[in-house]
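Supplementary Text 2. Reproducibility record for the structural model of the 359-residue chain.

All settings were left at their defaults, and a single model was retained for analysis rather than an ensemble. We include the record here because the model underlies the residue-level annotations in Supplementary Table 4.
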Amino acid sequence: MKRITYSILGIFTLMMIISSCSTQETGHLTGVIERPNWSGFNPYGMVYVPSGNAHIGQSDQDMFSTYTQRPKSISVQGFFMDDTEITNNEYRQFVYWVRDSIAHTIMGDFTEDEYGNEKIDWEYEIDYSSEDFDEMFYEGDMAFDGQRDFEVEDFIYRYQWLDWKAAAAGAERNTLIQDEEEPIYPDTLCFIRDFSYSYNEPMTRNYFSHPAFDDYPVVGVNWKQAKAFCHWRTHLLNSLNIENEPNTENFRLPTEVEWEYAARGGHDLTPYPWGGYYPRNAKGCLLANFKPGRGNYPEDGGFYTVKADAYFPNDYGLYCMAGNVSEWTEDAFYENAYTYTHDMNSNYSYTAADDDPDV
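Retained model, structure tokens:
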């Protein structure tokens, strides 16, 4: 009898504790009631790529029997992707944000958020002709022809990210937080570096800075700079969120599988995004910005790059998923990675240390 009394008392006490923790005593299991609403939204400039199954890898016969990436059937969760490559003007917004943040830091333009954390007060005007910002410009024998040019090597973006794979392996929390410092100005000299014995100095001087190229894809951006851009883009969106509204999933680079799945545009085992097997249409016109033949770059309509929305999009609404410029993905390259990566949202990533060899 005593055991039964203790048992009943224990159950009643537990029920009292549970009910006292609830904000509304309904007597029923309702979940937490006062939760923020979330309806979702379409990010500006992006299109939705629906979930599906993709056959990843070579679409044609492996003529040289390399077997470096054998075909594989993979399930891909739906995601949003930019409908065009990131343009010069879009990346310039990132560069200017970093530049202006340095200027505000020099002037001490800070305020505090609701938690007492210091943040930049963007309301203050910046006059770059002021001598207060002389340290941001080349001086002395570094200055050219009396021009006031920014020392762009000092445009450094600092951020943190969490290593979720290390967390899953049971690492301590303080080892999960990774600090990054990345110079973010694009390599405008790539037009000279990539084309030996070729006169491309006008493109070096103008491609990223001249408004005529605002809608052309940005070039000369390395993988770490692309990652920094994605982090900044997430920060930019989250900083404008309404109070107590849930943050969105972070912007990031697509995985290799996501990129190939999106590039195919819903067509299975076709070598080109438009669903065909040839780079030209019935009239013989090229369908993307390729190098058509030896010494004949302008045949496809573009001598160098073309605008990010040139040519027709694929069936997902994505432009220039073949040709034009190369694009970064999240994955690292490893020969035959498809043989052991998962068949659901496959991803092989590796965070290289600064002292790792190039290959």
